[in-house]
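Table S2 (continued). Query chain:
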Amino acid sequence: MSPRTADTTEGLRTGTLTTADVSFFVVSAAAPLTVMAGVAPIAIVLGGIGAPTGYLLAGITLAIFAVGFTAMSRHVKSAGAFYAYITRGLGKPVGIAAALLAMLGYNGMEIGVYGLLGTATADTAHSLWGVDVPWLPVSLAGLLLIWYGGYRSIDFGAKVLGVLLVAETGILVLLAGGVLLKGGADGLSLASFAPGNVLVPGTAGVLAFAFAAFTGFESTVIYRREAKNPDLTIPRATYLAVGFLGLFYAFVVWVAIQAFGDAKVVAAAGDDPAGLFFTAITEYVGGWAADLMHVLIVTSVLASLLAFHNAINRYGLALAGEGLLPRAFGKVHAKHRSPYVAGLAQTVLGAVVVLAFALAGADPYQQLLLWVNTPGMIGLLALQLLAALAVPFFFRRITHQEGVLRTTVAPAVAAVLLSGAIWLVITHLDLFTAAPPLVNAVLVAVVPAVFVLGLGLAWRLRRTRPEVYARFAAEPATPESTPQGEAPSCPQQTSSSSTPASAPRS
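Corresponding output:
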């Protein structure tokens, strides 16, 4: 019997997701409404009326990163996404460490948000009906709801996220329409984009928040196996996601500034950051819209949770195939074609973390959300940096027809810019967590600690399980075009244009 390949995703429902579906997953993970209503007011306080430009600059940086990232996606077919890319460029030890970092990053970004789900639901219930709802039962119910969403088929999740994403972006478009039709508080102004209002000390803090607001956009490649025509779908979805988020964020923050006026918005945001968007939509649309926004923030959080849950499940499935996680994690549901065992394990992990914070008497927002989210956010930024560094090394090792702009220039520029983004986030971490310096130092230290642990795991695998180490992040043996249930045909030499352009150099 031939050895099992590293790719165990043949059981997933292939050829299902369109460009729009994949975009729904990754944009929903970013939770645009929650980011705007909850974080953008702080960005305005820090950066003044020049805050919208910070989101544009972050979007441009990540678009540059996407150039090399998507070029590599056409040559790397493994289901391992981030860690597979990094392995192919920087070697197996760094790739295995990246795999652990990916699990930390995505789990941290998802599990911490259950604290936000509890507090957002409690705030909504109190604002609308005057009812005080405890956060813990809401968070636990959310765990069950998200588990069910991940248990169902991937197209079911895409439809749910599509509806929720349209709803949460729609309420922000409604606010924008009201502000634009009424001409804002003092007439519409483009002063937000003037260099004198952008080049201010607070812009560094705005950029830190802006980069965090894009977290999850890179997860398009996780859905390669389930996408229709992935060589086109994945790059398109990646550019669509980063382009939409960058432009939409900048536009909505600019709209919020117009709603209060250039001269008054910073004071308004400082006096009531949590209520800034609700006040604006009440003034320009009506109280009913503010009530609806409260509800849609809860659904925005749910959409983000489901998107990250699906991404984590597919990483768990891939790592089970690699032999780094128990083989049971690689099971795919016979009907729904979902990685249901990995999803159940992720849900149990989330419940353990949520209950541990609850039993410790921790605050669901200040501690569960911020303390668990922060290492996850830094971990994903570090993975983006490693992926950018991997691109030039990968293309040096293969024959290809990609241009030097895609394979060298853009990845190098992205690596420099992403290094700066990580530095901005770490040096402004107190703005994210409002925690003492010691706590912040521990939250940052978790990321390199997990990476070093991964390097140690790679060393151990090489010595004790050389067969697992040797096949780590290997390319799948079965072509992506093979229909479900059919055996792959024997590979033959061909001069067709369908021949992979990434054949190794002799």
